[in-house]
Amino acid sequence: MNMLIIGNPIFTLSESELAQIKTIVPGVEISYPAAADVTDDHLRNADVIFGWPDPSRLSIARNLKWLHTPSAGIDAYANRSIYANEGVIVTRSKDVFNIQIAEHIIMLFLALSRGLIACVKSTFDGKWARVGGQLELSGATVLVVGAGAIGSELAGQLKGFGCKVIGIRRTASELPPYCDESYGVDMLDAVLPRADYVALCLPRTPETKGMFDYRRFSLMKRTAIITNIGRGDAIVSDDIDRALRESLIFGAGLDVTEPEPLPEDHPLWSAPNTIITSHTSGTSANADMRRFAVFTDLLGRFAAGQPMHSLVDFDKGY
Question: What predicted TM-score, i.e. pTM, was given to this entire model?
Fold first, then answer.
């Protein structure tokens, strides 16, 4: 087996981890270049790729049987036509980021509801400034749009605050874990006015692009807070900026934006009661450990010809 592991500042493997791979698959040949140093020969020879290869170059990877990404987001690799081998298996690092992203969302909810922006400013200014008009998370109704693995983890953590959690999924199905109610996306407009807090945990698909526009912000409570940790294009940037400045909603916590990175002169940087965290919600000291555990479990299954998990559904796009 020829394995290509693509180095990245976000994701690196230690010598002991590389040795563990060789224990799982004796005789494996491992190439471990940095992303900028991946050659055509690397791609042509690879049976397995672990990393983020350039999607436009995957057509030359004629031996590729399995691609595993270090991320949960998979939109760049969810198109079967980019692969030379139609039977390629594509998996993602599912359930690696659930805990820290859920905590990140709750951090944003609390920071925005408790007036932390003004408090931090007064700290930097060295001035004693009282903040009023704070809201509470305890007992609130939280709408989780995209109640998959991350959304379910969030719902579970919110139970500690006594929140009522409503899940929105692609289609109506069984009740997601820890949710009190669940609806298909066709019911989004009907339930949106009930939400005190809204968390977007969506993948990038044609259906999610621009899902939250000015019309939908107009349906929300004026005291509502929205967060987005999925993909930036789920929100129309100009529309949320307008909604915040017109006080249609109370605040926004954006870990992802459209475009990304957000240009320095973009108006969202100065939008009222807005926190932008520059796509850091998945960062955690434990993330690499969980990521590697997912990969090695899948590697053992792949080598043994056993069923794989964390598979990408090309029809759904994630």
Answer: 0.90
